[in-house]
Design brief:
The chain is an alpha+beta fold. The protein is 27% helix and 28% strand. It is globular.
Amino acid sequence: MLGPAMKHHLVLPLIASVTCLAAWDANASAAPEKPVHRTAQVGHAKAKHKAAPALSSASKSEPSFTTKSKAEVKGSSKAKIAAAEKDAKVKDDEAPAAKKHAKPSFWLATAPHVPLALVDGEAIKAVGERGKTCGPESRWAAPLSHWKAVDSFGQVTGVFRVAGSDLYDVTQCHEVFFEGQKGEGPGVLFVSEDSGWAPGKSAMWKPSVAEKKHFERFVGGVEQSFIDKKPVGLAGPLGRRTLYFDLPAAAGRPQHWAVSGGPILVVAYLGEKGKWKASTVRPPLGLAKSYKPVSVLDMNGDGVPELVYHSDDGPSYADAVLSLNPASMGWDDAALSPGGATL
């Protein structure tokens, strides 16, 4: 039978071993003590036990060390391990979550309703090549498939069902038409109902009367600079061919913007002292209604809206997507639909 002193020699290494294991679980970056050291300690304790003399009656009356039972040691170790696991969970919760992209989304252009863009993660890609390929009919023109109509600021206004499509040999595209709609149907964007895209907050901005007047004068000056001869037709009031929008606040980036159509496409921002400044301009195509802003919406979920516009030079027409270039504050081409033609 072991005396209190001998029990002390055996229990202490066991407690040290359990404590070391709990500490290692709590902080995985710290290397645990090597098992060989703990084995040496236990062996050393056993050697001392063999060499120890028998205890006298006098030593039994001496104060002894208080030792813990196996149940107490086991309960203590469980408590420490539970605390370590809790700390680890807190660290995991505080760590930045990995960004998850929604499943791809499929976009149809306004006129004609042919593929505009495939959005996969943050990448916005054109579909096919004019006159060669235009994406599989089973994806882009499947009869009875459902498509959500999306308005000028990225809000869903209804769901339409495909009644059929016509193959146009010039573009090799199936031009979709919807049930209950005459001709091409509403002149808005469409996103497939099985897409991962979901509407975000509207980017609409309402400028003051003075800001609008300043913008009208500004656009008039830009048009005069770019147009050599009078375009064909009438452009109509500037207010009907302009979308005013906001970008999320960011250091060094203007917040208030406008995109205007007509004989040219103008994207501008409101600078210091209420002065408008051009960011991107598309050249004239000969018609007073060569360009029309279609929508300002976040297509890829990165928090910054894209611009979609319709262009028409007479014989042919198409939709295009522009994305902000944060380095230049300009708007770059992201995707172009195969479009259509009057030929």
